[in-house]
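Alpha/beta fold hydrolase: structure, please.
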Amino acid sequence: MEELKKEGKYKYFEAGEGTPIIILHGLMGGLSNFGGVAEYFPKHGYKVVIPELPIYTQNILKTNVKAFAKYVKDFITYKGFDRVILLGNSLGGHIGLYHTKMYPEKMLGLIITGSSGLYESAMGDSYPRRGDYDYIQKKAEAVFYDPKIATKEIVDEVYEMANDRIKLIKTLTIAKSAIRHNMAKDLPKMHVPTCIIWGKNDKVTPPEVAEEFDQLLPNSSLYWIDNCGHAAMMEHPDEFNNLMHDWLKKTHL
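Here you go.
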């Protein structure tokens, strides 16, 4: 992916012209996880924008799902977008859901994959405590159906996070915030068209979580990807793009 633009407090990737798709990354792994999406959609009439979320840089009091949703809204306003499509994985999906709850007037559509927001242990179990490299490698591999997707680069990033005291404290703060901001009561009131794309073999947010999202959201469509773990857009980028694109066409977005 190309260099990030830096403007004021924002750092972001941007490509293409058209309806804005804003991508919200999770706690683990950054913007490059969405390389497949960032390459595909600008060729099909969309502007793809991936802001770097201030997960480890905000004051600890602003290190929570609600504050990140507000950050996204401020970014949308800063960019001058009227309404947007949000796509989020894991914590990013949760931020997207919370943003949809708070600012429905900004939303054209929402796509979530492996999202937290319903499942209590989604955060706690999957974020490694400090530990040796092998332990962290196993934890990183468990996120995917195919452990080879957890490249040395990904494992190194997780290892660095798990051994950085400030980052670890913030990660645990976010995990607690994700449990506190459970969305079960809010979802039935959220009418924004929502696309749920889920790995059939997701161990972090298991398939029944996707089914619950689909039951609770009044305007949702659920799609499965086989042989796929927690980060569908990384493991099966082409299939992910096709499902998402078909849904966008069907929903006239």
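Notes: The beta strands are 5-7, 10-15, 19-24, 46-51, 84-89, 107-113, 194-199, 220-225.
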